[in-house]
């Protein structure tokens, strides 16, 4: 229907950020009105991470390593994955509503407003489980970092890795949620499929998987750059040169998300009522 | 109350047909469940190799993983959202006016939705059998008792799911509750890692909960890790949990339903 991304180009970046934060804080205000939900969701995120921690503790009580990766290194993998997912839920959870908004015609309202549609949709919800995910994910990372003996010098890499992981995760989820512009459905099944398989596979060292899986995770759907590559570099499993791939993955995934969303908005034909 | 078997049957069929209408569910159930199964297979093959870990060799771990896949497909693929949504959006007010027992009606619908996962489970098992050729059951009787264990999973899964959806009387959303339940189920059922790997105290905690009956019980029976008496004991415990959760669900509903407020009425 409409090329609804066009106004976004004309909107100053500062205005876009202002819109984003205003909407985001409005969500925060709405969340505190329902404390039961807040605590249930935060506990769900926390429990899930505690159980990931427990899984690794139990596993490593029985095996010395997994494909050459030790307990603390694997904690880093799981921790960074949780933080990335948590940041997605905290700052960009609205992307998951794309499918529902397309079906209900809710995108109509967003198109008429003077702000990029993708910003309005992305900031339209906060996943409260993110509180537990981020807190316990960071705790796993810190424990793994110290246990693996990585040291303070690599901390800037760790901080950068978290920021990049959050962006790549959010961008890939957005791109896959935007598939709902064409394949209609309430649930963002492609994005859900990605995070389910990512959650299972990427807490393991990539080396245990067949070459085809490794290639897909590195270059097709670059989930490996979310947690595996940065952790493999700081723990010495991969050459530092691979760090250059992380910003490339950030740029690639953001362009992919913006491109797919833009095409999706062009294909959007409202709800028909 | 005029709730009869015919009503139950009708609700099972409606729920079954409703789920089958969305054929993409089959594909994604298979993709998610099958993908998770393949990842688990790769991990255990890498870890176990030609040795054993906590009494599991590669042969038994293959069977264990496939049993876990079937259990996960049945439990995670069922229609818990329909139950939760009716509480959250207030449609429960309509349900309460119907001359059927609320819990029994939801159980019938839930069983129907669990049956709809059958094609996904069968396709996954056939593919896994061809790919991994797991060992058969320890004895024909063990195979039969494994089937009984899977059948008991229907009321057990309903009991757990029903209790968790009742929390929606106090919350505005269901997602977090579902995640909490699935996280606990994945870990304490042995789906994530077999209970035999866990320290004694953690195994005791797991066995004090209903979760092990979703993977550990059927796999222990199938692989002959328990004798016939042990298998019957596990099945009795599974049945007791199913009954206990039903009663608990009934008690909680009696309190929870007083929270129903629809449009201020």
UniProtKB/TrEMBL annotation, chain A:
Please tell me whether the keyword Iron is annotated for this protein.
no
| Top-level taxon in the UniProt lineage | Bacteria
Looking at the UniProt entry, the stretches that span the membrane are 38-62, 74-92, 134-154, 160-183, 204-228, 240-261
Pfam families given in the database record? ABC2_membrane_6
Alphabetically sorted, this entry's keywords are: Membrane, Transmembrane, Transmembrane helix
| Record keyword Nucleotidyltransferase present | no
> Which PANTHER family does the UniProt record give?
INTEGRAL MEMBRANE TRANSPORT PROTEIN (PTHR36833:SF1), SLR0610 PROTEIN-RELATED (PTHR36833)
This protein is called ABC transporter permease
Organism source for this protein? Glycomyces algeriensis
Lineage, broadest ranks: Bacteria, Bacillati, Actinomycetota, Actinomycetes, Glycomycetales
UniProtKB/TrEMBL annotation, chain B:
Keyword check for Metal-binding: no
**Would I find Transmembrane among this entry's keywords?**
yes
Q: Where are the transmembrane segments?
A: 26-44, 64-83, 110-132, 144-171, 183-209, 229-253
Source domain of life is: Bacteria
Which keywords annotate this record? Membrane, Transmembrane, Transmembrane helix
Per UniProt, what is one Pfam family of this protein?
A: ABC2_membrane_6
What InterPro entries does the database record attribute to this sequence? ABC-2_transporter-like
Q: Return the PANTHER family for the record.
A: INTEGRAL MEMBRANE PROTEIN, SLR1174 PROTEIN-RELATED
Please state what the protein is called.
ABC transporter permease
Please name the source species.
Answer: Glycomyces algeriensis
């Amino acid at each position: 229907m409409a090329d609804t991304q066009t106004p976004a180009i004309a909107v100053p970046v500062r205005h876009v950020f202002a819109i984003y934060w205003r909407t985001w804080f409005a969500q925060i205000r709405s969340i505190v009105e329902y404390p039961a939900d807040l605590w249930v969701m935060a506990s769900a995120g926390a429990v899930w991470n505690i159980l990931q921690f427990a899984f690794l503790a139990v596993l490593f009580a029985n095996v010395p390593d997994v494909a050459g990766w030790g307990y603390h290194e694997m904690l880093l993998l799981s921790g960074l994955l949780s933080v990335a997912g948590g940041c997605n839920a905290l700052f960009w959870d609205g992307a998951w509503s794309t499918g529902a908004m397309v079906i209900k015609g809710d995108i109509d309202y967003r198109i008429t407003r003077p702000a990029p549609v993708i910003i309005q949709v992305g900031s339209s919800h906060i996943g409260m489980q993110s509180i537990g995910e981020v807190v316990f994910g960071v705790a796993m990372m810190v424990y793994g970092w110290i246990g693996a003996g990585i040291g303070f010098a690599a901390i800037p890499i760790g901080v950068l890795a978290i920021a990049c992981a959050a962006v790549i995760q959010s961008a890939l989820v957005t791109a896959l949620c935007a598939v709902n512009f064409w394949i209609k459905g309430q649930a963002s099944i492609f994005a859900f499929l990605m995070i389910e398989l990512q959650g299972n596979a990427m807490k393991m060292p990539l080396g245990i998987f067949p070459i085809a899986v490794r290639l897909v995770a590195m270059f097709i759907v670059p989930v490996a750059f979310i947690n595996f590559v940065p952790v493999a570099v700081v723990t010495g499993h991969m050459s530092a040169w691979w760090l250059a791939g992380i910003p490339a993955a950030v740029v690639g995934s953001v362009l992919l998300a913006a491109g797919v969303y833009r095409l999706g908005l062009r294909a959007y034909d409202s709800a028909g009522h | 109350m005029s709730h009869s078997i015919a009503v139950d049957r009708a609700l099972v069929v409606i729920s079954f047909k409703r789920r089958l209408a969305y054929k993409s569910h089959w594909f994604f159930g298979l993709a998610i469940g099958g993908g998770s199964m393949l990842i688990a297979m790769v991990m255990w093959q890498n870890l176990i190799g030609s040795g054993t870990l906590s009494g599991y060799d590669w042969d038994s771990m293959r069977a264990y993983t496939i049993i876990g896949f079937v259990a996960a497909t049945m439990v995670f693929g069922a229609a818990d959202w329909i139950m939760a949504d009716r509480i959250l959006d207030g449609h429960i007010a309509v349900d309460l006016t119907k001359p059927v027992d609320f819990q029994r009606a939801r159980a019938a619908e839930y069983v129907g939705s669990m049956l709809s996962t059958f094609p996904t489970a069968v396709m996954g098992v056939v593919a896994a059998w061809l790919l991994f050729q797991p060992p058969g059951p320890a004895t024909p009787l063990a195979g039969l008792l494994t089937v009984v264990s899977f059948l008991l999973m229907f009321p057990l899964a309903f009991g757990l799911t029903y209790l968790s959806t009742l929390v929606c009387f106090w919350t505005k959303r269901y997602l977090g509750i579902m995640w909490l339940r699935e996280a606990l189920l994945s870990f304490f059922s042995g789906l994530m890692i077999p209970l035999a790997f866990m320290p004694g105290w953690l195994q005791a905690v797991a066995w004090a909960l209903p979760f092990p009956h979703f993977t550990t019980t059927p796999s222990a029976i199938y692989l002959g890790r328990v004798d016939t008496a042990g298998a019957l004991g596990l099945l009795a415990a599974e049945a007791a949990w199913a009954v206990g959760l039903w009663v608990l669900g009934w008690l909680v509903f009696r309190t929870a339903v007083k929270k129903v407020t629809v449009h201020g009425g």
